[in-house]
Amino acid sequence: MPQARGHWSSRLGFILAAAGSAIGLGNLWKFPYITWANQGGAFVLLYLLCIAAIGLPIMMAEILIGRRTQKSPVGAMAEAFGARWKWVGGLGVLTGFVILGYYSVIAGWTLRYFAVCVGWSVRGFDAEAASGAAFGAFVANGVLQLVLAGLFMVLTTAVVYRGIGGGIERVARTLMPLLFGILVLLLVSALTMDGAGSALGFIFNLDFSALQPRGALEALGHAFFTLSLGMGAMITYGSYLSRKDSVVSSAGIVVALDTLIAIVATIIMFSVIFSVPGMAEQINKSTAGMLFITLPQLFYAEVPFGVLLAPLFYLLVAFAALTSTISLLEVVVSYFIDQRGMARGKATFLCGATTFVLSALCGLSFGSSKLLSNFSWVYRGTDHAKSGLFDHLDYLASNWMLPIGGFFITLGAGWLMTRQATEGELVDDTTPAWFRYGLWRFAIRYVAPLAVAAIIVAVISGKDFS
Ligand code: PHE
To answer: Tell me, what's the pLDDT at 2?
Structure first.
């Protein structure tokens, strides 16, 4: 039986919740290190191009499908594209479950680093506890991994349990302004550091010789992940949007905020890194450890007011991760509510508990369980071999599930839905003057599907960009 659906109390509520979903570990953890690995400059420009030409049109498509059908992905696909396309929504629900499984592990780490930094700020910094070896021991501590991922899942579940207005929107309204505030504070302090100039030079140089084809595909794949596209998160959030709220300008604001925050986070991290002689060389060895090994050391040794800024920084990352895990869980939960007629409370507990089982397994895949940590199916024997459950799930979701889901969403919105239907959703008296429907339609029919098909072909031919 369909139940009364919740709604955002206002367009601002939707924008904050959707921006909360988009802005997450993808912006604060993944983007800086892939920018580093691809040597900034040309890569950043290409990423911006992918966001504008592919991400933005798909963001509009997902929100319009949700707002039009007022249904979560499975029902929305059936209604907007035809009953045969239900499985695309089903794939989205499964993708949400998979991403949440591994994402919550890293999200749990941010809680630990917040707590540890508070301790260091109060009692003094302990260099040994901040070393790479200590990090290795921490991630291999199975009990701690279970506790942290479990804690994060409890937080996520508690918010989703309270529903749209009283849970998700309320948290977004509280946390997002705090997040913006903390980020501005960190940016101001970063720009006064010695390394700020080199950081800006690294991020905004136009040296195309450093760019490799693999980087182009990485930029595109990351555009999906960072904007929460390709699995129906934005369809789900759009389905709680009222008909009188503009799809186009909301999508524009969410995409702009996500991009801004990724760039600002990168400026902050690189300013810190470039301020320390010799640090850049060290980073080259472990770009992924930037957030949890390099930064804590730098905050306490180099950054003015580091004792204050370090805990704040990890609090920021935890907030950003939480508003993202909420949206991942909501996609799964809304399937059970809308399609299976389950009450929200029951659906939330069921999905939260099931996901925790997957998070627990992922948490044990950093050394505490040999079996879960060491198996390698993908790229075995090469220098970018995947190893362990965490790695494989990230690979599966980023390289296969999101691009495939995204591909079918563009096909559906561009070719299965009528021009009348999509134009009716996008163009009305709330539509901003910069929007050109013809351009959107061209992007969604040709540019986006071809670009996404290029990723999929690249993956099939063995490239990896998770
Ligand atoms: N966009 C989120 C981030 O950048 C991750 C995410 C992906 C959230 C897909 C929801 C759906 O961290």
So the answer is: 46
Joined together, the tokens standing for residue 361 give 């397994």
State which of 327, 334, 393 you would mutate to test the pocket of ligand 1, scoring each by most atoms of that ligand within 8 A of its C-beta: 327
Q: What HEC string does the chain produce?
A: CCCCCCCCCCHHHHHHHHHHHHCCHHHHHHHHHHHHHCCCCHHHHHHHHHHHHHHHHHHHHHHHHHHHHCCCHHHHHHHHHCHHHHHHHHHHHHHHHHHHHHHHHHHHHHHHHHHHHHHHHHHCCCCHHHCHHHHHHHHCCHHHHHHHHHHHHHHHHHHHHCCHHHHHHHHHHHHHHHHHHHHHHHHHHHHCCCCHHHHHHHHHCCCHHHCCHHHHHHHHHHHHHHCCCCCCHHHHHHCCCCCCCCHHHHHHHHHHHHHHHHHHHHHHHHHHHHCCCCHHHHHCCCCHHHCCCHHHHHHHHCCCCHHHHHHHHHHHHHHHHHHHHHHHHHHHHHHHHHHHCCCHHHHHHHHHHHHHHHHHHHHHHHCCCHHHHHCCCCCCCCCCCCCHHHHHHHHHHHHHHHHHHHHHHHHHHHHHCCHHHHHHHHCCCCCCCCCCHHHHHHHHHHHHHHHHHHHHHHHHCCCCCC
Amino acid residing at 280: A
The average confidence (pLDDT) of the chain is 92
pLDDT in tens, 21-74: 999 999 998 999 889 988 899 999 999 999 999 999 999 999 999 999 999 999
Q: How many angstroms is it from 37 CA to the middle of ligand 1?
A: 21
Could you tell me if 103 and 325 are in contact, meaning their C-beta atoms sit under 8 angstroms apart? yes
- Residue nearest atom 11 of ligand 1, based on CA coordinates: 228
Q: How far is the CA of 368 from the centre of ligand 1 (A)?
A: 27
396 lines ligand 1 (CB under 6 A): no
| Ligand 1 center–CA 226 separation, angstroms | 5
Q: Quote the tokens at residue 424.
A: 């009716």
CA of 24 to the centre of ligand 1 (A): 6
CA of 265 to the centre of ligand 1 (A): 16
Whole-number pLDDT of residue 1: 40
Indicate whether residue 269 lines ligand 1 (CB < 6 A).
no
Q: What pLDDT, in 10s, does the model give residues 228-255? A: 999 999 999 999 999 889 999 999 999 9
